[in-house]
Amino acid sequence: MAATPDYYKTLGVPRTATADEIKKAFRKLARKHHPDAGGDEAKFKEINEAYEVLSDEKKRKIYDQYGTGNPNQIPHGWGGGSVNVDDIFGNGGAGFGSWAEILESIRRGEGAFGTNWDFGNFSGFGGNRGPRPQKGQDMNVTLNVSFDEAFHGAQKRVTVRVPGKSESETLDVKIPAGAVDGGRLRFRGKGGAGQAGGEAGDLLITTRIDPHPYYTRDGADVVMDVPVSIAEAALGASVVVPAPDGTKVRVKIPAGTQAGAKLTIRGKGAPNVKGQGNGDLRIVVKVSVPRTMNEKQRQAMEDFLAATTEEVRSW
After folding, report:
1. pLDDT tens digits for 65-124?
2. 70-105: b or e for each residue (b if 16 or more CB lie within 10 Å)?
């Protein structure tokens, strides 16, 4: 039998903690470790188990005395063999019989209290209330969308197979304009079925934006590399670039622009999915060096080199 964990240590409270202190500690840890918030599911279950025992006055009393919150796990004779069934369950123990009868029930394979009792679902120690409702499991699905679908918004159809359901379900998913890579859309009650009357889990759809030949996204901003020739970078130029919204934008390249220089066109980025307005179009200048040159180009470059007096290397 696995040892029962230290529930007080799990919640980070002393053994003298009040009910309010226990509740406050549980809420803080639950928010931190909840799977929906990126927490660890196993840790979240440990926290729930500890709170379920320590938040119940009678279960906590049993745990403090015997080291377990489950009456079926109380060893016979703990504390010198003077344990009385009625001491544990009050009047509710009147129908369980003596310890001799309980041990005989265990030897028959019926458990400490016979076959008609399920203490895994026992609550309040005033009667068998049945299992607690549990929310169904959340489902995570990745949905690939094109750059344009994420930029302008789109309507997509997604077919999912939910565990516990015999048939697949097709959903109409609205991709909002300005959707970002890694963004999440939540569909309440479209996940796994709940237990014991609990509500169904949620369906979480994560958007992944396919690569685009020209653009990349940085939140609502759009980043674009713009090639310019050596002459355009040196002398300055006015170039026309295609904006992601489908329009054409004229961009001024200042004389002496260096490779890697960044220029910003305000409001030509993607719609801000969580606010108002659009992001920016950020242009990164890429100076294109010719791999081959004709005779005139070569002569012009040689003339330029001959006319150059400044030192480009400082060492």
Report:
1. 877 766 666 654 444 433 444 444 444 444 444 445 555 555 555 444 444 444 344 444
2. bbeebeeeeeeeebebeebbeebbeebeeeeebeeb
- What is the spatial order of strands in the sheet that 203-209 belongs to? 139-145, 203-209, 184-187
- Please say whether the beta carbons of 96 and 131 come within 8 A: no
Of 246, 245, 265, the C-alpha closest to 178 is 245
Alpha-carbon gap, residue 49 to 31, rounded angstroms? 15
Taking Cα atoms as reference points, which of 289, 239, 240, 233 lies closest to residue 261?
A: 233
- Residue 204 DSSP SS3: strand
User: Tokens representing 171?
Assistant: 């959903």
Helix runs in the chain, H state only: 7-11, 19-33, 41-54, 57-66, 85-89, 99-107, 147-152, 230-235, 295-307
pTM for the whole structure: 0.55
